[in-house]
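lol so apparently i was supposed to do this last week
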Amino acid sequence: MQFSISQGNIATTAADCIVVNLFEGVEAPGGATGAVDAALGGAIRNLIAAGDFDGKAGATALLYTNGKLPAPRVLIVGLGKAEKFDAHGARKAAAAAYKALAKLKGVKQFATIVHGAGSGDLDAAAAAQAVVEGTALASYRTPNYKREAPEPGPTQCTVVEYDAARLSNIEAGVRRGERIAAGVNLARDLSNEPPNVLYPVAMAQRAQTMAAATGLRCTILGEETMRELGMNILLAVSRGSAHEAQLVILEHAPAGTESQPPLVLVGKGITFDTGGISIKPSERMEEMKHDMSGAAAVIGAMQAIAELGAPRRVIGVAACVENMPDGNAFRPGDILTGMTGKSAEILSTDAEGRLILADALAYVARFAPKAVVDLATLTGAIGVALGQQAAGLFSNNDDLQAALMAASAKSAERLWPMPMWDEYMEAIKGDMAEVKNSGGRAGGVSTSAKFIEHFTEGYPWAHLDIANVAWTTTERDALGPKGATGYGVRLLVDLAEAY
Ligand code: BES
Ligand code: MN
Ligand code: ZN
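anyway here it is w/ BES bound
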């Protein structure tokens, strides 16, 4: 998707289609929509009066201009109720508009106004960012393995602003939106790739290629190095796999920040989770190719953070491992001692995410982090608790939790705080080892977070359980197709800038 910016009147802009908007309940539109309506002799007012378009959020209507305007088509997108409208409303409206345009064979290039920058009262940069994100996210297509490529949607978008005084803000928002959306779409690509293509070494190589293109420092640790470091808990998960585990470390440190305590982002990167010896039922097991979505979000966020030139030090760590059963696989009953010297008893080889995080979180202590945030598709139970409406937030640090909630509100990637009471520790106290890797069904999300917390030392920490939001099996909104959502990239970019 290519974006350009133009100052002028959308009504007289040449394009395959121009996009304007309408709040719910408005009968006589003003602003850009009013100008287009006037040029069309009241066609938009007629559409509303006839009851055929009501401005509901996400609704669209298409009109043909019959030579009255340079563009042959006008698309009107509904913004919903004005009092409920916000930047995420602009994002969703832009996505709905793109989706409608993608159905029209004749539209390759279109022009849009910045939803919300006029009567929506949004900050011009924030509105432009949201419109670009919505458009670029809606244009995302999953990797194609068919002989024939899918019909491409529109590939060029001109963002039109009438007010010259707002142009530089719009420009900044457009560029920001492009970079963030590229990070989200990178995370989606990684997560959507089939598990035979995206095994740990392949994932590490993609991260390395991205790092070379963006100027991030990239270090990759293989199994030999991890063994020397004593990362035996992580390595145990990898033992049943023919693929070598990889720990990918990406560093963004602009000049002068090299010795700053970094914000550290850690992602669970299980490229396929069979459950291991505690094997999963085969029904829907194919979805476990997405079990690396936490690591994908970290890689996507690091790309965006680098491209945006965030003025602080950030380190992203992707722990890439495949969880398979074979003659070398680890077993229920095994007791493992990892990098911290703490021991863990395995009750289920399917509770593997917390195991690889135990050593990845021990490893990052060496950076003397300002804070560490991990993202993991950790438990099925988080979806039982929250549905697909929010990821679970677990933290033992109020400042970090507040910063994450603020980033969540800003990015419209929902988080909901979950309890971390010490009493949950009882369920995972081991008999022969300090902890065991499953505390049973009761409070399963909180006991999994307590297990991870046990291996964090010396830094503020938060854990995001994204198992319920990282992918969808049905298309839920216009912001993307079914499959990986790229959840977490927008949130992490906002956190990196504000915390
Ligand atoms: N990757 C899964 C979690 C998961 C399951 C995500 C379903 C999305 C959909 C994780 O490794 C896992 O298997 N967790 C177990 C933990 C249990 C064995 C303690 C779970 O949630 O059942
Ligand atoms: Mn598992
Ligand atoms: Zn898993």
